[in-house]
Specification:
The protein has 86 residues and is an all-alpha fold. The protein has one domain. 65% of the residues lie in helices and 0% in strands. The chain contains three helices and no strands. The longest helix is centred in the last third of the chain and has 29 residues. It is elongated and about 50 Å long. The mean pLDDT is 87.
């Protein structure tokens, strides 16, 4: 199995925290505090500037992926009709 770098491990924790359904409607600054707690418990040093920058970049990628998927669904959705009957 591949070994994750510390940065990759932080990203996993960030994505998990950001996509946690319990935090869905929580303001960004509160999510940041939740992430700070998660990272500190996991033994990582907390760097507010790095974490905020990474969370914003992750959020942008999540939104871009969702928009691209919705665009494809809009364009090719007609091809998916009836798949639920297979």
């Amino acid at each position: 199995m591949v070994e994750l770098t510390d940065r990759e491990k932080k990203i996993v924790h960030m994505i998990t925290t950001m996509l946690n359904p319990a935090l869905k409607d929580v303001p960004f600054n509160i999510k940041t505090k939740a992430l700070q707690s998660v990272l500190l418990v996991a033994g990582f040093r907390w760097d507010e500037e790095e974490a905020t920058d990474m969370m914003q970049a992750i959020d942008m990628q999540i939104k871009a992926g969702s928009q691209a998927a919705m665009g494809m669904l809009g364009k090719y959705g007609h091809l998916l009709k009836g798949l639920d009957k297979l």
